[in-house]
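Appendix B. Extra example for self-study. Work through it before the problem class; the solution is given directly after the inputs so you can check yourself.
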Amino acid sequence: MTTPTAAMLVIGDEILSGRTRDANMHFLAGELTKHGVPLIEARFVTDDHDRIVAAVNALRAAHDHVFTSGGIGPTHDDITADAIAAAFGVPIDVREDARAILASRYEAMGTELNEARLRMARIPDGATLIDNPISGAPGFTLGNVHVMAGVPSIFEAMVASVLPTIAGGPPLLSQSYRIDRGEGDIAAGLSALAKAHPGVSIGSYPFQQNGAFGSNIVIRGTDGAAVEAAMTALAREFPPRA
Amino acid sequence: MTTPTAAMLVIGDEILSGRTRDANMHFLAGELTKHGVPLIEARFVTDDHDRIVAAVNALRAAHDHVFTSGGIGPTHDDITADAIAAAFGVPIDVREDARAILASRYEAMGTELNEARLRMARIPDGATLIDNPISGAPGFTLGNVHVMAGVPSIFEAMVASVLPTIAGGPPLLSQSYRIDRGEGDIAAGLSALAKAHPGVSIGSYPFQQNGAFGSNIVIRGTDGAAVEAAMTALAREFPPRA
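Solution. Structure tokens for the complete assembly:
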């Protein structure tokens, strides 16, 4: 069973200007890891048509799935849907099923479905809609690209809708081990361990606590027995200090 | 005065697996905005030599400055310095000035400068060192690529060392305005405003508070008078509700 891979594209000036701190990548990364579809690459671009088109085309060619975040609202700076259509070379227009979702939503709220709001019913030809239980306006999947909102609560709801529709790989298992020594002290032992256990990946993440250096070691792999064996060897090499 | 542009490359399995939430991009984005060197693009890649090389080469060709974060420690998964050397096609080896920094640092701490720690003195030919006041091991600048640590406190100190050495553009000014109406209500007015004020960028960021929708409007530009004029027009179009 080969492991499918995923990439993410985050769209928005507000993230790259430092005004807003993105939360969606961290959320998606965790969900994809659990689903067995590792996130291999992420890109952040400004609200620029050509940059979005180029990034979408590079990522969809290189990965099984691409998840985008941001730029599908009603305002003039929401240009993602048109950029996705351009990337695939397909027409885009208001689609009846999307319009109907918005119409019933706004009717229930006593809000006018004006021209700006109708922009959120613009869906590229051939796409399927992604449900938005929070605010109505749907996302969509076109080919292997899943186009979702940037507002975290809506993004998360859309991810919950999409993930069950895509085939997961074997879940990535991980175990962590804390060593109260600096990375420089344990690097040689870790390197030997990594060579002896090629079926797992062994990551070392340094930290500083109360002025002392320590390292969190994370062993990851899809074979539970291999992860377990590497973890046993790690604990033997670096036993907890009494 | 043309505005220089920047890109960022964040390196590390721990971010893309969802284990760690990156903090460095948000920090760098804010600092670069203040410095007048807008961050246009960011990429996140796993600890994979070929992916790092490809991303560095794409970004350094497209931007005036590239800032990297992560992968310059002493362990086997710290492969950034070698990947940067490969991207530039230059040799890399332990360099005397970097070795001397580490030697005096570890001597003061009573810690052995072992082979693993010496890896942190491996510097590509032609690079200049970036000071690390926190833990000694230097970053480096090679061409237009600034290679820094992933640990946020060290990353931030290195950014503070590097920024004064690079030419800033005109600082990007911004003003914000909160409108207690959903984006769909104000989109047409905003769009007209954006067309009438082409010298600034007008972003709209929706929020939800106590069940009601609102929009934060951010006007950005390097010409203070133009930002001011657009903000005046915005406030006239959408006066605060009594």
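Self-check: The domain at 6-165 of chain A is CATH 3.40.980.10 (Molybdenum Cofactor Biosythetic Enzyme; Chain A). If your reasoning did not lead you there, revisit section 3.
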